[in-house]
Amino acid sequence: MSIQRVNPETLARPAGFAHAVVADDCRLVFLAGQTALDATGKIVGDGIVAQFEQALGNILTALGAAGGSPEQLTELTIYIVDVADYRAHAGEIGAVWRKLVGRHYPAMAAVGATRLWDTEALVEIKGTAAIPKS
Based on the structure, what is the number of domains in the chain? Predict the structure, then answer.
């Protein structure tokens, strides 16, 4: 299996994402939206950075249970209640990403949302991963 990140020189240089990701000879894992819920079903984390870390950790836990690892993430969508707050903390969020995932960047989109399913949630992350066939 191979995962190739594609960033054409004719597009703006990506920062913290890839323009396209190609995965060959793999199984796809579709990861449900994850908020900052802990194992008891309670939203944890004061602020966007802590909630992002919990939500991303939840995505990685689900991915691991499916037999995958962080570098196999191919696509993520991040839903954000307060886009300005997210952007204001982008450096800290990037540090959380590098701590949990490293420098493997999937194709990504960030979407502003007026409200998420979990009313206390500030962020929700869903994604796709490509893992080797067993």
Answer: 1
